[in-house]
Amino acid sequence: MSAIEEIHQMPLHEKILIIEAIWDAICREEEHLQVPLWHKDILDERERLIAEGKARFIDWDDAKKQISAATR
């Protein structure tokens, strides 16, 4: 059985523990992570809008609805 198949067979609480362990491992290697320039540009623009008071925020439930509608 492959590792992916084993993960599919795990109970949810074990999957969450695996995700946490993977995230912790990624965080320890953060300095090796290469962020694409286009992604940095988007984050910089969002930071600028926040600093200038021009950022628009929406409620999390509304955001989930918009995401769901966009993926249909």
Give a topology summary:
Blueprint: H1 3-9, H2 12-28, H3 37-51, H4 60-70
Describe the 3D structure:
By secondary structure, the protein is mainly alpha-helical. It folds into 2 domains: 1-33; 34-72, no CATH class. It is 69% helix and 0% strand. It is built from 4 helices and no strands. It has helices at residues 3-9, 12-28, 37-51, 60-70.
Key phrases:
2 domains; mainly alpha; about 70 residues; about 70% helix; single chain
The coarse silhouette is extended
Strand content: under 5%
Helix content: 55-70%
Number of strands: 0
What is the residue-averaged pLDDT? 93
What's the SSE pattern? HHHH
Residue runs with pLDDT of under 50 for 5 or more positions: none
Count of structural domains: 2
Q: Count of DSSP helices?
A: 4
The span between the termini is 33 Å
Q: Biggest β-sheet, characterized?
A: none
Structural class: mainly alpha
- What would you report as the Rg, rounded to the nearest angstrom? 18 Å
